[in-house]
Write a structure and sequence with these properties.
Number of domains: 3
Structural class: alpha/beta
CATH class of the largest domain: Alpha Beta
Number of helices: 10
CATH architecture of the largest domain: 3-Layer(bba) Sandwich
Shape: globular
Strand content: 25-35%
Radius of gyration: 24 Å
Strand order of the largest sheet: 7-6-16-17-18-15-19
Number of strands: 28
Largest sheet: 7 strands, mixed
Helix content: 10-25%
C-alpha cells in the first residue's frame, strides 16, 4: 500500500466491522511517551489497543528529559508516580564556566515548594528512555504491550473504521492515533500540512555521554559558553550519564563518538579522553510547527506528530503526554459507554489552541525573549473556552485544572480523582444528587473548600472541571453528552 493511496470514504458502508471481536479497537502508531501514555490510559478503560512501533526497541536517548509539574500529576494518575519519583530528580542549578573556571551559578527554572493544591512545584529530570521504560512496564502490567519492528506503510479509512497496513499485515480498528513523531508517516499519508517556522538557523547536537569519574561533578548543570556557541553538560538523575547539548554558530555537528569527543575537547576545559563513552547522539535544527488539523475522520494526531517544539523550556514531551491524557478518556467514552463520535472533535478544539500557545512559549524561551517562569509548569493550562466547559460555581471556571487539597474524609482530592472515572464533587452543599453509576462517576462530598468555593463540580477523567453549578438537573443533561445517564431506581 503506497502512502499516497489513503482513502476517506465518507458515508460508505464497509463490509468488515470496525474491528474483529478479538482485534484492536485502537491502533496507536509509535511507542514514544505520548503513544505509551495513551495506550496505558486506553487499556485501563478496557479498550483493546495495538501499539505499533517501527523500531526493534524503545528510543535509546535522553532527548525529552524534563517532566513538568502538570505531567507529573498525569503520570501519577496513570499509576507510575512512584517510579518517576524513584528514577528522576530535580533539575540541578546551572553553573556557568569561563576559561575552565567556575564563574557563577545561574538557575534556569522557577522553583516553587509543593503546596496543598499543587503537589509538584519544580521540573523533574528523567531521561526520555527511562520515561518510556516506566510507561511500557505499566502498559504490560495492565495487560497491554508493544508490537516492535512493526511499521505502518499505509492506511485506508471509511465510515466504520480504519485499516492500518503494517509490515506484519493489515489490521482493522475503529480508530488510529498517530504518535509517530515529527516526521509522522501517518500525517504525511493523510496529507495534513504542518505550519511553522525555523526557530534558530544554527544546528544543534544532543548526546548522552559518560565522563571520567573526576572530570566534572554531578551537582550542577554545567554551562560552557564560548565564541563558537554554547555547550551544556547536564547530569541525568538515576544514571551515570550526562546529556550534552551544543549549538553551532558555524559548521555542523559530527555525531560520531570521535566527533563528540573532539567537540568536548575543543569547547570545554575537558579532554577527549574524559569522555569515556558516547551512548547516543543526534543533530537537529530547532523548529516550531503545528499540524493544520488534529483529526481526519477516524485518525487523530498526537504529540510530535501534531506539534514540533524547540527543546527550550521542556515542553514537547509534556504537551504530547497531555494530548494522550485528553484523548484517552474520550476514546474510552465513545468505544465503551456510547458517547457520540462527535465527542472526539473536542480533542482538536481543546488541544490545538494549547499546543499553539506552548509552541509560542518554547520559541520565545529559545530566543531569549522570555524566561522559564510559571508557564512552563503547564499547571495553568486549561480549556475555559472549549466546547465541554459549561456552567459556573464557586471560584473555579469550567475548563480549569481541578486543584488538589484535603477533604473532610482525610483523603487528598487527587486520591479521589485517581482512576479512569469522572468525579462529582459536592463542595459545601447538601443538594440532592441523581443516582449515578458508581463505577463511571464517583461522588464525593466535602465541606467548603478554599480552592473550589461551594457548589457542584464535575471533574473529568483528565482532571479538569467539565461542569460546575448548583442545579443537579443541569448536571444530568451535561452527563448525557458522554453516554452517562442517571441510574433508574427500582
Amino acid at each position: 500500500m503506497e502512502l499516497n493511496s489513503v482513502k476517506e470514504v465518507v458515508g460508505a458502508t464497509a463490509s468488515p466491522g470496525a474491528a474483529a471481536a478479538s482485534g484492536p479497537e485502537v491502533v496507536v502508531v509509535g511507542a514514544g511517551p505520548c503513544g505509551l501514555a495513551l495506550a496505558c490510559d486506553l487499556v485501563r478503560r478496557g479498550v483493546r489497543v495495538l501499539v505499533a512501533e517501527r523500531e526493534p526497541d524503545l528510543f535509546p536517548g535522553s532527548r525529552g528529559k524534563g517532566i513538568q509539574p502538570r505531567t507529573r500529576e498525569v503520570l501519577d494518575d496513570l499509576g507510575v508516580g512512584d517510579a518517576v519519583r524513584e528514577h528522576g530528580g530535580p533539575a540541578p542549578v546551572g553553573m556557568v564556566w569561563q576559561d575552565g573556571e567556575r564563574l557563577r551559578e545561574h538557575d534556569m527554572f522557577r522553583r516553587a515548594a509543593p503546596t496543598g493544591t499543587e503537589p509538584y512545584g519544580e521540573p523533574w529530570l528523567m531521561p526520555q528512555w527511562r520515561t518510556q521504560e516506566i510507561l511500557l512496564a505499566r502498559l504490560r502490567e495492565l495487560g497491554g504491550d508493544v508490537a516492535f519492528s512493526t511499521a505502518l506503510t499505509g492506511l485506508d479509512q471509511d465510515a466504520d473504521g480504519v485499516t492500518a497496513h503494517l509490515t506484519t499485515g493489515p489490521v482493522r480498528a475503529a480508530f488510529l492515533v498517530a504518535a509517530d513523531g515529527g516526521r509522522s508517516t501517518v500525517r504525511r499519508a493523510l496529507g495534513i500540512a504542518m505550519t511553522g517556522e525555523e526557530v534558530d538557523p544554527a544546528p544543534m547536537l544532543v548526546a548522552d555521554v559518560r565522563l571520567a569519574e573526576d572530570a566534572l561533578d554531578r551537582l550542577n548543570w554545567h554551562v560552557m559558553p564560548d565564541g563558537q556557541g554554547f555547550l551544556t553538560l547536564c547530569p541525568l538523575p538515576g544514571t551515570a550519564d550526562f546529556q550534552l547539548v551544543a549549538r553551532f554558530e558555524e559548521g555542523g555537528p559530527d555525531t560520531s563518538p570521535e566527533g563528540v569527543r573532539a567537540l568536548v575537547a575543543a569547547r570545554t576545559h575537558l579532554t577527549a579522553r574524559d569522555v569515556t563513552e558516547v551512548r547516543w547522539a543526534s543533530d537537529f535544527r530547532p523548529r516550531a510547527a503545528l499540524a493544520d488539523r488534529f483529526r481526519a475522520g477516524r485518525v487523530l494526531l498526537a504529540g510530535d506528530a501534531a506539534h514540533v517544539h524547540s527543546p527550550a523550556g521542556g515542553q514537547g514531551l509534556n504537551t504530547g503526554v497531555q494530548d494522550a491524557y485528553n484523548l484517552g478518556w474520550k476514546l474510552g467514552q465513545v468505544l465503551r459507554h456510547g458517547a457520540p463520535d462527535a465527542l472526539l472533535d473536542s480533542y482538536e478544539q481543546e488541544r490545538r489552541p494549547v499546543a499553539a500557545d506552548v509552541l509560542g512559549l518554547s520559541t520565545r524561551i529559545h530566543r531569549g525573549e522570555q524566561e522559564r517562569g510559571a508557564a512552563v509548569q503547564q499547571l495553568g493550562l486549561g480549556y475555559r473556552t472549549g466546547p465541554l466547559s459549561v456552567g459556573r460555581a464557586g471560584v473555579l471556571h469550567p475548563g480549569d485544572r481541578a486543584p488538589d487539597g484535603p477533604t473532610d474524609g482525610g483523603r487528598r482530592l487527587f486520591d479521589v480523582f485517581r482512576g479512569p472515572h469522572f468525579t462529582l464533587l459536592a463542595v459545601g452543599t447538601s443538594a440532592e444528587l441523581p443516582l449515578l453509576d458508581g463505577d463511571l462517576v464517583h461522588v464525593h462530598r466535602t465541606g467548603s473548600h478554599e480552592a473550589y468555593g461551594e457548589g457542584l463540580f464535575l471533574v473529568r477523567p483528565d482532571g479538569y472541571i467539565g461542569w460546575a453549578g448548583e442545579d443537579p438537573s443541569e448536571l444530568v443533561r451535561y452527563l448525557a453528552r458522554f453516554g452517562l445517564a442517571p441510574v433508574t431506581a427500582s
